[in-house]
Amino acid sequence: MVTIAVDAMGGDNAPKAEVEGAVEAARTLDIRVILVGRQEDLRRELQQYDDYRGLPIEVVNATQQITMEDSAARAVRAKRDSSLRVASRLVRDGIAQGFVSAGNTGAAMATAKMVQGVIPGVDRPALAGIFPTLIGKPVVVIDVGANVDCSPRMLAQFAVMGEIYSRVVLHQPRPKVGLLSIGEEEHKGNETTRGATPLLKSLPLDFVGNVEGRDIYTGKSDVIVCDGFIGNVALKVSEGLVDMVKQMLQESLSATITRQMGALLARAAFTDFKKRVDYSEYGGAPLLGVRGICIICHGRSNANAIKNAIRVGAEFSSGKVNERIEDELRQWAAEHVAF
Amino acid sequence: MVTIAVDAMGGDNAPKAEVEGAVEAARTLDIRVILVGRQEDLRRELQQYDDYRGLPIEVVNATQQITMEDSAARAVRAKRDSSLRVASRLVRDGIAQGFVSAGNTGAAMATAKMVQGVIPGVDRPALAGIFPTLIGKPVVVIDVGANVDCSPRMLAQFAVMGEIYSRVVLHQPRPKVGLLSIGEEEHKGNETTRGATPLLKSLPLDFVGNVEGRDIYTGKSDVIVCDGFIGNVALKVSEGLVDMVKQMLQESLSATITRQMGALLARAAFTDFKKRVDYSEYGGAPLLGVRGICIICHGRSNANAIKNAIRVGAEFSSGKVNERIEDELRQWAAEHVAF
């Protein structure tokens, strides 16, 4: 049975969402969960679930907590007994196969890299964002914020890692890999994309060339590779736009009685729509390239998002994503001197 | 009276949308419009408007046409009698103060730079995208695709140009200028943003520091400065996401009879919402930093978008945006050696 540690003190709704998500996962998914955080708080929270004593859930105490305001560097240096750090240590020591955190993203990435270490052959671990698309299947955008000023070689490694993730965890049989740029023609891009193109072509994967920003949502490719600065902007622009659209629609729909009635009748449509763009179904963003597993959830994660992140962590482990990344990178490094 | 030339053969709905937009502008805005394109096509289109002979509209013939598929380089070299090139020449020769095109963006930018030339003190002209925000006022994102691999110095110049545009054409009394990055703290960013920060601080404008992707839509700042690769991704991600949201909502709202009724009652709300996010109200993206005026519209532009672009071109001219850019850059270059 796979064991996943949960940093239970991280998210905006911690520890409530974390505990509920863990209980749901342990109840329905055949996964052992270790909740890490202030023991008394977690036990109190767990007592709300009548069946929790029979579930494969454990609690591991951690006295400190990293806030959203802590810098990653400070979090790593100063808070050695934080719930995040303790969760990452459980992975390093083989007690858990991976950890899930909805806390400070920078701190989680820095901790995973430092405590768990990096897979041989990987220059830099990268955060893989999972985006919804018009045609239903999710697309992996890698990197969404772990690295800036990426080299072409780093982008090629992101492609390898993202492609394996799409294949193994998202079940795309032969993922198409695109390079995020500002035009479809090969020469349209910047120095980095132009340098990455020949490397991506040399990889044994289905590289479809440049894709544009709008292609993220069309599902035209399954994996989209980019520098972490660009990917982070794409992610946050999307979040900001969705928030704006929601609020504007809400304002427009409540402006008159007729509209309110319309909105009431159409309520199922909005619920349906929200479900289709709901990030919580995709279970967070994996940090690919670290030893062990690190799944980073949105700060606003609800119990469903946490549960799905735990599920994703377990699939990641049983699909041996990290072993495949190490193997494939070793093989290609041997075949392609440039890479 | 300001004169604006319109490349009437460029957009997806050309020349219909261009002619209708020109007629509307000439009728209501006290602007002289020169339609550039195949004379016979334009005259035929104009004849649909009973009053057109009394309006300040002229037609200038151009035998060639640049398509969306033409490369910018080829368009500039090979099609010397294109509607775009002829429109740009009218600006160079002082017959028009600016031109508007809904055609090939790359070709329009290359043509304006080559034919009209660049304002003294500007290293690179930049495309200013105008985005809607939650609080109603538009935000300028500069650059959205004219330049990649921008230097910090280029970003500082974009800030100067965007700030003047926001002040003069968008009537923001004291625009706040933000630097697009991946975190609000000054050290969060890439080499370029970290290099740009001290330059932006040295400018006599209201620099608010780093802003994130989601802040584009909150209206937290009035001008957002970024590399053209990043800005282009932000623009196209937004377009792709809006298309997805529209289509998903449409599908959800038509799935059952009840939902259809709801949608019918709430129709005014959707119209209202569409108007609030409608790019056509903002009249296209100005290419800032070229001599004369160049306003680039979306390929899908309708007559309203063309009319508004013509209006914006005229306000740009009467507000002496270019003269101010030249003056302010000269002044700051004298004061700040680093700049």
Blueprint of the fold:
Two copies of one chain form a homodimer.
Chain A: E1 3-7, H1 16-28, E2 32-37, H2 39-46, E3 57-61, H3 72-78, H4 83-92, E4 98-101, H5 105-116, E5 126-131, E6 139-142, H6 152-168, E7 176-180, H7 191-202, E8 206-211, E9 223-225, H8 228-253, H9 257-265, H10 267-276, E10 285-288, E11 293-296, H11 303-318, H12 321-335
Parallel strand pairs in A: 1-2, 1-4, 2-3, 4-11, 6-9, 7-8, 7-9
Antiparallel strand pairs in A: 5-6, 5-10, 10-11
**What is the percent of helical residues of chain A?**
40-55%
Q: How much β-strand is present in the residues of chain A?
A: 15-25%
Termini Cα gap of chain A:
37 Å
**Shape by Cα distribution of chain A:** globular
- Report Rg of chain A: 20 Å
Which residues of chain A sit in consecutive blocks of at least 5 with pLDDT less than 50?
A: none
Largest sheet of chain A: 11 strands, mixed
CATH architecture of the domain at 3-122 and 289-320 in chain A: 3-Layer(aba) Sandwich
Please state how the strands of the largest beta sheet of chain A are arranged side by side.
3-2-1-4-11-10-5-6-9-7-8
CATH class of the domain at 3-122 and 289-320 in chain A: Alpha Beta
How do the helices and strands follow one another from N- to C-terminus of chain A?
A: EHEHEHHEHEEHEHEEHHHEEHH
- CATH topology name of the domain at 3-122 and 289-320 in chain A, in short, is Isopropylmalate Dehydrogenase
What value does the average pLDDT of chain A take?
93
Oligomer: homodimer
The computed structural class of chain A is alpha/beta
Q: CATH superfamily assignment of the domain at 3-122 and 289-320 in chain A? A: Isopropylmalate Dehydrogenase
- Counted by DSSP, the helix tally of chain A is 12
Task: Count the beta strands of chain A.
Answer: 11
| Largest interface by Cβ-Cβ < 8 Å | A-B, 64 and 64 residues
